Amino acid sequence: MKRKHYIYIALLALGLPLASSCSDDYLDVDPEGTILESNYYKNPEEAYTGLVAAYDPLGWEAGSTYHNIGAVNSASDDAYAGGGGPSDMSTWQAWNRYTLTPAIGPQGEYWNRNFTGVSRTNTLLSKLTEGIPGLDDATEARYTAEAKFLRAYYYFDLVRLFKNVPLFTKPLATDELFDQPQATPEEVYAQIEEDLTAAIPDLPMTVPAATEGGRITQGTGRALLGKVYLYEKKWAEAANQLKEVNGTPGGTSQYGYHLLSDFASIFSPANKFNSESILEIVHTSVANGGWGSWPNFEGNVGVQMFGPRAYSGPIYEAGWGFNPLTLDLVNALKGDPRYDATVLDIKSIEGATYEPSFDDTGYFIEKYAPKTEWLSTGGGDAPLNYPNDYIEIRLADTYLMEAEALVQAGTDLDRAAALLNAVRARVGLAPVAATLENIYKERRLELATEGHRWYDLVRTGRAATVLAPMGYKAGVNDILPIPLGELTNTKLVQNPGYN
Asked: What is the pTM of this model?
């Protein structure tokens, strides 16, 4: 998309919410879009605004999820929920201690965010299929590809988190909505594969960062498809797609991706859309959001969440004390060159004071810490306007996914080792053998606090052991419960163990 402030303006013109949830019920499918459907999409400008609306749920910040970082970090062994006490962000606390119920947990936010995205992409795709006056063929093909990618993205989130979800591939009439059963995971994955495979050829190889940073490219499509194949244990297919993204380990790929020499610079707002970024969710401070407009703002409030409470000292601003790091993660990173760029050690800062949060350890997330240099001064309420983007897929991640797929398939172990050790060499670490144990360890240290750890533990079958001390129950907590409100007057069935 164009920079996020243009998205903000476009969404206001369309009349759609920016960062808010429309409803807790997926059956209340985008009422704003429904009202406008009969008289909208009349020209290329309205088609573009519809595409913007389809992208918009990627950046939703209000509620329980915060881009899959805060809540899912709490569910892992890398961080606690934290905050002001055991009832602060009760949705995070429930996932942290595995006391999830259909009524309590982050599931409503995930469900609503992703099904709103599905609804908007389905509406856009139906209008593109009908034909939009004045929209040229090349632009129509690109918008169609972006919408199919987005539908695949939203459904990939849904099937990973809930497993059993209804499958919508077109807009439905109101009287049809209550009759939709859950599809099988296999059916959902097949649709995801179909959408991504169809999208990739019509996506651009690259986009100009200054005007279109954040829009989907062919590399983004292949990276997500490779990740989908990895979750399905289709090792050869995963390796083939990811190889197209990665190119020669340590070199520059056909899409221009290459590892940055400075690990810490990956996460700086001064370095948006850098060469390691494959899927980047954009935030801006120029919208100047305020508490009165909650939850419609475009800044990254997750940054404020992660800062230490009542902090006083240099470099950082006071935050709300969420996601204090576990000592297990901190100790795993000690001696690793990535430690300082990952771990914010408050007690090591001379003259700094803070208020311990719930489950405090004194260690916080550095990658998305609220630094004074990025505090908004342009208006609005500063805590709501941090410009830090969230990089959901980056090159080191795809290197390690391809290495894992190659080891699982038992093919080209030399390339697997080259990929793994390129990630290590970037930070000055010596080579190691390409084993699953080493790859899993590297993923934890390289991607710590970026929202991947819980998913990795679940998909590799290690969650039952690693997360048992937190209350994790195998066969139940591999997925979230279906939100309680979604079961009323529908054909949806609750996930096992949550009845």
From this structure: 0.92
